[in-house]
From TrEMBL:
<protein>
    <submittedName>
        <fullName>Uncharacterized protein</fullName>
    </submittedName>
</protein>
<feature type="compositionally biased region" description="Polar residues">
    <location>
        <begin position="112"/>
        <end position="122"/>
    </location>
</feature>
<feature type="compositionally biased region" description="Basic and acidic residues">
    <location>
        <begin position="89"/>
        <end position="102"/>
    </location>
</feature>
<feature type="region of interest" description="Disordered">
    <location>
        <begin position="76"/>
        <end position="136"/>
    </location>
</feature>
Length: 136
């Protein structure tokens, strides 16, 4: 029995630092696969580099502002159909020299999308009683 990829997806993971409340997001490539013993696994990569799951403490990245590590939560996902797909799925045979620009194209970074607007949870925002002036 061989290892079989059962799902491919891009998952956008949102992080909110519990220390400084900075928010950011990163895209991860995810493969779900079944090994030759029938066990299901998932494999994460970011910018082509294997990483631990961002949903676990071992894979929690550091906050870009304060360096603390925070587990992410799924914000959005895009499944990628696994080949060969349903009958009559469009496909092209790759011939020698097919789209040579692919070899030199710049990598699309995992954080190359618009980042969330920084915000603070309402319980951490100053209320109307807070004054912008110093003590009187």
């Amino acid at each position: 029995m061989d290892t079989v990829i059962t799902e491919l997806a891009v998952e956008r993971v949102k992080f909110t630092c519990g220390q400084c409340w900075h928010e950011w997001s990163t895209d991860y490539d995810v493969q779900h696969y079944r090994d030759d013993t029938g066990h299901e696994w998932e494999y994460f990569s970011k910018d082509g580099i294997a990483v631990a799951s961002p949903y676990t403490p071992a894979g929690a990245p550091p906050c870009p502002r304060c360096g603390r590590h925070w587990v992410g939560r799924l914000l959005a996902r895009r499944p990628i159909p696994t080949p060969p797909g349903p009958a009559r799925t469009p496909r092209e045979k790759i011939e020698a020299g097919h789209r040579p620009e692919r070899q030199t194209a710049p990598l699309l970074g995992a954080s190359a999308h618009t980042q969330p607007t920084p915000s603070m949870p309402s319980e951490h925002q100053p209320g109307p009683e807070a004054s912008t002036q110093g003590p009187r």
